[in-house]
Input
Amino acid sequence: MNHLPALPFLLPALSACLLVLLWGRLRAQRAVAVVSVAALLAVASACLLHTSDGGARVYAMGAWPARLGIVFVLDRLSALMVALTAAVAAASLLYALRGWDTRGAHFHPLLQFQIMGLNGAFLTGDLFNLFVCFELMLIASYGLLQHGRGAPRLRASVHYVVLNLIGSTLFLVAVSLLYRVGGTLNMADLGVMLAQAPRAQWPWIQAGAGVLLVVFLLKAAAAPLYLWLPGTYGAAAAPVAAIFTLLTKVGVYAVLRVYPLVFGASPAADLATTVALPAALGAVAAAALGALSAPSLGTLTAWLALGSTATWLAAVATGAAGAVGGGLYYLLASSLATAGLFLLTDTIARHRGAAADRLERAPPMPAARLMGAAFFVLAVALSGMPPLAGFLGKFMILQGAPGAPWLWGVILGASLLNIVALAKAGSRLFWNLEPAPPATTLDRRLLAAPAVLLGLITALTAVANPVVGFTRQAAAEALDPGGTRWEVLGAGPSAPRTGGRLPAPGGREAAP
Amino acid sequence: MELLIASAIGLLTAAGVYLVLRARTFPVVLGLTFLSYAVNLFIFASGGLRTGAPPVVGAQATYADPLPQALVLTAIVIGFGMTAYLIVLAMQARAATGSDHVDAGTTPQARQAAEEA
Output
């Protein structure tokens, strides 16, 4: 059996365990972390190559048949997400090596656990395993959020942990509701069972789908559940905030993965569209206003991260293959740009004396032209102005959803407000200066990680055509998962197409 | 038995929601614990309720669904770890900010509560 679908999960798991054993030996930890992330980049590229001809690779854990055991499913969509994770993780690690990883004891293992949770969530084909991967990801993020300490981080952590624990509780409620009806947790199998459910059980399915959507929207920080995000991301250390930009994306990914596959033929089929679209547009609008009012560059970037996730969620909620495909391309571009801006924010804050990243009068920065140029290009990519990839992504989202005037109005209006906010921030940072020479010199190696991300964004723009072809196919596959479903249910060594299920347990006769 | 289980889940959830909405960290932790008890019972009930049926196939004529029991076990382990972490976090926040208010130091009410304490 080809083990590739499990590798993006197992590799960081193993290196994280090794890193825990190397506790206190920073040089060894750094070496292991760099090797692990480099290997992850190679694995992610292999995943992309493997899935480029379409179809889903299914990996049955422990070789149990798909309905009994846990399956990992590697298709275009999950390969794309794994590759994005690897790229952002590499940039985050590169930046952390320049000093952030010395400010707390466990940065490297926690980062690997974070990658493991993210990749697990992107690859799993089992609803309960998705819950477990969410938890893995969150536990690591609780630890990472604490990295570097300080009272604001502690306070943000309490809010973040409590909210996510409530979200996990709701997730379990939804999973049990669906298990009650379908008698399975495998997503593909659950889709078949829910489609066959008798009418008397429809309320259970609708309740389960609704509760699950609340959980995913909380993770994706859609309106009105977004209030936790700016405080949390603004308080996190720079490399941590960079990898956190992917955490909200997992919520949107889960909507795109679970709703067509599990509820596509069930009475809750249109739920994601009707509920998620207003929630996403509300978050886009709120993020644009929040960005305008942000007192510091870190908070501004956090609001922009929220806006980028919400724009992708809006694209997913349209349910149109063109818009979702464009949204995937936008997701790649905007995630890289947000991560880059978080890292650049930290570099800027380090060189502005007491003002840090607050948008107020401060001594000039060393190498201000270089940093200003990097800020400008990232701002162009993030706000969706031509010629960079962010513009192409937004353009394709709008092009793919011609019959949605609200979507057009909100996204275009928010883009304008984002441009204003970024222009305001840039002019205050780089032009509103105290008449004094720069107090420090620039450590140019700090700019390596943002430069790598900028290079990736430029590359995405340059090879937009093949990338968009890939994302459109990924979207079409995710929205019409018939092929994926068949391949999942046919996986495993004995793989009976009919039969092979356990006989119905006695207690299930008392079904409502 | 259905009524008993259902009202137990309802009561635990009600208590949990009430406590989670409190302004001090300790009641919030307790509330989350209540919520996780409620959800554990809920998962357990999702396999159907039946007395005297072991979760073993073939031991008796009837058996209980073993999967929800395995899920409950996983949920308990995760919930336990999370609660432990949250308690440590709350105590650290108490030490760092001088208050066990969930918004310690950010709102006028929280500052007032810190001064009283």
Remarks:
- Residues 6 and 59 of chain B are 28 Å apart (CA to CA).
- The domain at 2-116 of chain B is CATH 1.10.287 (Helix Hairpins).
- The two ends of chain B are 46 Å apart (CA to CA).
- The helical segments of chain B are 2-20, 25-46, 66-97, 108-116.
